[in-house]
Amino acid sequence: MNAPLPHSADHAGKLAKTLGYYLAFIVLGLITGIFGPTLADLARNTQVGLNQISIIFIARALGYLAGSFLSGRLYDRVHGHSIIVGMLLATAIAFVLIPSISTLAVLMMVVFMLGIAEGGIDVGGNSLIVWVHHERVGPFMNGLHFFFGIGAFISPMVIAQVVLRTGDFRWAYWLLAGLMLPLAFWFTRLPSPPIEHAPQNTGKLQTNSLLLVVIAAMLFIYVGAETGYGNWIFTYATRLNLADATGAALLTSTFWGSFTLGRLLGVPISTRARPAAIIFFDLLGGLACVASVMLFPESQTMLWLGTIGAGMLMASIFPTALAFAGQQMTITAGVTGWFLIGAGLGAMLFPWLIGQLIEPWGASMMTRVVMFSLVGNLILLGVVVLIGRKNGGA
């Protein structure tokens, strides 16, 4: 009668850990969505223009790259949940400090620390959930990235509501900081999964170095377009008088909400269509949506429809590109690391670039940069397909 209990306890333990990783990825989404609606406030605090405050995107992305690099080695040596606890506490500290900082240099240092924590949580969630579920990780991994979208979706809405009720954007950061503490405490009560090590490199990576570079470049450009649109659509809408601050925050949430829905829809679609076809359709559709926003700059209707469509269509590009890469070459931990570095560099450079262009040339530069990025991705997709056919890949 008592035989099933050990299995039941093991199953409950796996679910508890999985839920913890999902909540941690909501935190990642909150970090992604918080800067767009508060950029103007942070600029006022530090007495700089939007072109100068946009450097925090570089600081955050550099921190993310450093955090990904360092934590990837830590997770192979230290119990993973203790690392996640440290990263959550660092995020809470950063959220407490950021809205009260009056010097740009100090703000950059704190945002850099936030980026380190972000990279550590990202690497941890993606690694530990595999160690928990092994070959059955597929649906759980898709769920992990779905919850990232949930966090990015609710972040601007939380900010808008807190500002509306308190009149002070700082309370939004402080509220989110407080939410980190119970989650960090919960991870102290959860045993970490056993540490696993990647198999030895088979040497296949060397023969596919060109493919690795091209796919990393695809992720660099795509993530740049995604974060560029998500972080600057608030400023775009307010600068062109298409929405007030509350409406622009809702628009930002709508982008991340449609992005989250797109991630969810991508799960069944990926079982029925080839990755290259999905990416091609997503890029063309996203291009059409962004073009509609750019071609009708005075239309609120096109802004909302284009933003919804762009978020939904762009959502599945990243996970599908990783699946596509797996069809073309052997994916080792080192290969995955280079892909994440490419993505991190895109998240760093593109939002900063848009900030530099908006001040002298206007808010419409955001849509133009995203348009060129999606066109570049189409070209690189064609290169990947050609290389795959030449090497006999899928």
Q: Mean pLDDT, nearest integer? A: 84
Number of helices: 15
Strand content is: under 5%
The rough form would be described as globular
**Structural class by sheet pairing and helices:** mainly alpha
Radius of gyration based on Cα positions: 21 Å
Q: From N to C, what is the helix and strand string?
A: HHHHHHHHHHHHHHH
| Sheet with the most strands, sense and barrel status | none
Spans where pLDDT lies below 50 across 5 or more residues: 1-5, 200-207
E-strand count? 0
In whole angstroms, the N-to-C terminal distance is 50 Å
Work out the helicity level.
Answer: over 70%
Give an overview in words.
83% of the residues lie in helices and 0% in strands. The chain contains 15 helices and no strands. It has helices spanning 5-46, 50-53, 55-74, 80-97, 104-133, 138-166, 170-189, 204-207, 209-239, 245-270, 275-295, 300-314, 317-328, 333-361, 365-390. The protein is globular and about 55 Å long. The termini are far apart. 49% of the residues are buried.
Give a quick set of tags describing it.
globular; 394 residues; 15 helices; disordered N terminus; single chain; mainly alpha; 0% strand
Write the layout of secondary structure elements.
Layout lengths: L4 H42 L3 H4 L1 H20 L5 H18 L6 H30 L4 H29 L3 H20 L14 H4 L1 H31 L5 H26 L4 H21 L4 H15 L2 H12 L4 H29 L3 H26 L4
